[in-house]
Amino acid sequence: MKAQLKQVTTSPNNSFKVKLFEEKEFKAEWHFHPQYELTFMIQSTGIRYVGDSMHQFNRGDLVLVGKNVPHSWKTIDTKNEQVKCVIIQWDDSLFNNWIDKPEFTSIKKMLLKSSYGISFDIKTALSLENSFSAIYSQTPFERILTFLNILNVLATNATIELLAGPSFGKDLSLKESTRVNVINSYIKDNYQNEPTLTELSNKLSLSKEAFCRFFKKTFDKTYSNYVNEYKITIASKMLIETDLSVSQVGYESGFNNLSFFYRQFKKYKQVSPKTYRQLYQRI
Question: What is the pTM of this model?
Answer without folding.
Answer: 0.73
